[in-house]
Amino acid sequence: MAHVDQLWAGWRAEYVMRAADQSRQRRSGEDVPVCLLCELKDQGADHYVLARNDECFVVMNLYPYSNGHLMVVPHDHHQNLDDYPESVRTSAMEMTATATHLLREIYSPDGINAGINMGEAAGAGVPGHLHIHVLPRWISDAGFITTIANTRTLPETLESSYAKLHNAWPPQERV
Please, what's the b/e burial string for 157-174 (b: 16 or more CB within 10 A of its CB; e: otherwise)? Predict the structure, then answer.
């Protein structure tokens, strides 16, 4: 048997177990507990919520692909983009535009990934509540450990990323 290196990421255990339990509950037709994103909509800095308006909020991803990984989340719980009224879709896009501007300003990335995964089969970690991922990307961010070990190394803490982005967010929406 080939040698397999282990990289411990115990901080993800709670998320993985919670997601697995909710997935099993959905498949068996059971009621799923309150949505994680619904729980976050009224939270503040202690939950890494950066900004909020009447229809959406922006929160840092606790399990980021890169530093500065944000999620723009409508307050209402719907899975599909077309389930939301135009005002919410517009608000979400405006917050996404602000997020991309600030990520470029703060992190100077080579590009930005912004995307929506609608439904579990599309890769949505929270399949019932639409959200937009917004994250900076660099040409050089596919280093040895990412390419060979399928592992990301994040050079900045969530607290440091939060402070930078929170301070730069427009005051009228800042949490």
Answer: ebeebbebbbeebeeebe
Assessment of whether the complete model's pTM goes beyond 0.85? no
Q: How far apart are CA 114 and CA 112, in angstroms?
A: 6
56-60 and 70-74 beta bridge pairing: antiparallel
* 118 contacts 79 by C-beta, under 8 angstroms: yes
pLDDT per position as a tens digit, 5-35: 555 555 556 655 666 666 676 667 776 666 8
Residues 6+ apart with CB under 8 A from 66: 135, 136, 137, 138, 141, 152, 154
| Rounded Cα gap, residues 113 and 136, in angstroms | 6
Strand, coil or helix: 72: strand
